[in-house]
């Protein structure tokens, strides 16, 4: 029997498995392993057929799920089975021919081959390199499915091939024109996972927003909106169209789709009050039918947007909290939940016992990581060994504990352990936010590099510098805010008002009163500790935006929470909107503006 016939048999077996609803006991028969061994030997001896048969073989092996089946992978006491070894040898022989496959194979075969390797988590750098070398031909000749499979494979394997992605983005017209929601969603999801901008997709989706949104399934809408938000691509028509389909998304979409769509608006800091109100009105059903991560994602998104969530909080109290405690969730999920409760500040919606149990579990998980026992802690979002992530979780917990002490003293929380209250460097910038989000963070050592890979329909991810995103719409805003902050500080000094910059909201005196060292990673722009006067410069990142990207006057949840805690700690807070500051050009006008602001909180005015 020649190689072509053997490859054909694999294809027929794959189709038979599909027709029988997944029946594949045949893979454990010795005859099947003998077939694979014979195929491997013929390829090794140089009797390989064309690229089509080789790529089909990889594809069939992936669909049959051989490397994902524990019964195939292991053979008693954790030993690797002989069938598993045979599959690996066969794939390795095919990968050796990568350059030839890349040169001779058509775009469909190239897409199938890398998709198969990514699906099987098979190390195949030569094959991925071969596809990259054919990027222009693949982008030009490939169909929408070829493009989406290729992009998905590179994103899943963590191979950040910018040139390939840019080539496909430049030829995205066919994908968007065909309007197959799954192909579009998988494509832009891949760009977002690897933090590679996709201006071509963004432009074409804007042009066809209404028709795409009406045809696409809720899952595809959610992923597409999330990807555009993560990348900072301005797509106002797309977001408006998604909002227009809000009732359909909430009434027919799965909980994970609703959560992902809500997170997309949160990621873009778009004021989506009506949509969020609709989601909250269906909170009970969403939480009952969805996964715990969906509830956590929704609560965190509402908190970021500063939008009330009475329904979600009541659902957390009724059964969401019990599920968090019983389903082996990671520290990040507990941290996100408690942080969201603190930011929303609607303490009466959640039973005290639920919050006390959630806090106790989070403390145990944080202590396990802090004491070096992180390996035994369940992790579903990100590696617990990440210093940034650990700091993020701690700052969230400190924020919850601070808010609870000031606003919910009835809670019976255990005294904070000393290990979790040590002073830590100011390592998180205010633009980075409090938390990292996503369902799963995969690292592919075999394919060279790491990428944050989010399971389809996930909540989202806040990747930072390590992902190397080329540009985002927020960077200029952050820079403008930092410049204005310095400008205000210099004007205050010239005015004669002495102050310090970037000091913690929670002072040592406050920590002493609390009885533990509180470090929320919240800092005041300008403050005079002696007179308890603080000035906060509210830049673009402190406000929600409308669908056109214009700043509104509605502050983000993080800003509202910081201001609330600042005032409750006894600071006399002055808020300066960057837009108001910009209207005062001369020094005299700025002095008058600052004096008026200081007088409004009864601050001591320097002699001028």
TrEMBL record:
Biased composition, class Low complexity, residue ranges: 471-481
Gene Ontology BP term (one): regulation of mitochondrial mRNA stability
MF annotations from Gene Ontology: RNA binding
A single GO cellular-component term on record: mitochondrial matrix
Tree of life domain: Eukaryota
Domain RAP: 533-596
Any Pfam family the entry gives: RAP
Region spans: Disordered: 458-481
Protein name from the UniProt record: RAP domain-containing protein
């Amino acid at each position: 029997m020649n190689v072509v016939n053997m490859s054909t048999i694999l294809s027929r077996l794959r189709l038979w498995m599909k027709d029988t609803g997944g029946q594949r006991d045949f893979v454990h028969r010795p005859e099947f392993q003998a077939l694979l061994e014979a195929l491997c030997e013929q390829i090794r001896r140089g009797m390989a057929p064309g690229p089509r048969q080789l790529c089909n073989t990889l594809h069939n092996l992936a669909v049959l799920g051989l490397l994902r089946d524990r019964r195939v992978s292991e053979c008693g006491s954790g030993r690797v089975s002989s069938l598993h070894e045979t599959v690996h040898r066969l794939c390795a022989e095919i990968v050796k021919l990568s350059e030839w496959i890349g040169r001779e194979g058509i775009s469909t075969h190239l897409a199938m081959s890398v998709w198969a390797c990514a699906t099987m988590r098979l190390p195949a750098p030569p094959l991925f390199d071969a596809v990259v070398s054919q990027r222009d031909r693949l982008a030009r000749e490939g169909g929408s499915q070829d493009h989406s499979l290729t992009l998905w494979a590179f994103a899943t394997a963590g191979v950040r091939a910018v040139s390939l992605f840019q080539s496909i983005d430049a030829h995205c017209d066919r994908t968007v024109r065909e309007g197959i929601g799954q192909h579009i969603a998988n494509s832009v999801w891949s760009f977002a996972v690897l933090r590679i901008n996709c201006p071509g997709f963004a432009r074409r989706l804007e042009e066809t927003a209404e028709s795409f949104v009406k045809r696409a399934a809720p899952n595809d809408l959610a992923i597409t909106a999330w990807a555009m938000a993560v990348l900072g691509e301005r797509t106002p028509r797309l977001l408006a169209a998604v909002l227009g389909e809000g009732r359909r998304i909430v009434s027919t979409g799965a909980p994970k789709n609703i959560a992902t769509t809500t997170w997309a608006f949160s990621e873009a800091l778009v004021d989506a009050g009506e949509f969020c109100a609709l989601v909250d009105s269906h909170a009970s059903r969403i939480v009952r039918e969805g996964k715990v991560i969906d509830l956590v994602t929704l609560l965190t998104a509402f908190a970021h947007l500063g939008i009330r969530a009475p329904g979600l909080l009541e659902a957390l109290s009724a059964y969401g909290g019990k599920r968090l405690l019983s389903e082996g969730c990671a520290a990040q999920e507990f941290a996100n939940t408690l942080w969201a409760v603190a930011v929303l500040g609607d303490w009466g919606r959640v039973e005290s016992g639920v919050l006390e149990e959630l806090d106790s579990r989070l403390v145990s998980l944080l202590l396990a990581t802090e004491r070096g026992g992180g390996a035994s802690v369940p992790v579903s979002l990100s590696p617990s060994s990440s210093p940034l992530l650990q700091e993020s979780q701690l700052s969230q917990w400190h924020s919850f504990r601070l808010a609870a002490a000031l606003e919910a003293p009835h809670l019976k929380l255990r005294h904070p352990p000393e290990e979790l209250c040590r002073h830590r460097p100011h390592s998180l910038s205010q633009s980075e936010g409090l938390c990292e989000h996503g369902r799963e963070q995969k690292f592919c050592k075999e394919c060279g590099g790491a990428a944050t890979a989010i399971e389809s329909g996930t909540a989202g991810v806040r990747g930072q510098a390590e992902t190397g995103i080329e540009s985002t719409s927020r960077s200029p805003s952050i820079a403008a805010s930092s410049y204005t902050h310095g400008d205000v500080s210099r004007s205050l000094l010239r005015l004669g008002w002495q102050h310090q910059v970037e000091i913690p909201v929670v002072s040592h005196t406050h920590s002493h009163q609390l009885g533990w060292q509180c470090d929320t990673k919240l800092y005041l722009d300008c403050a005079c500790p002696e007179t308890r006067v603080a000035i906060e410069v509210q830049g673009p990142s402190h406000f929600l935006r409308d669908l056109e990207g214009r700043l509104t006057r509605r502050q983000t949840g993080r800003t509202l929470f910081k201001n609330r805690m600042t005032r409750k700690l006894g600071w006399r807070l002055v808020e300066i909107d960057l837009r108001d500051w910009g209207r005062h050009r001369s020094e005299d006008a700025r002095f008058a503006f600052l004096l008026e602001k200081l007088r409004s909180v009864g601050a001591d005015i320097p002699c001028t």
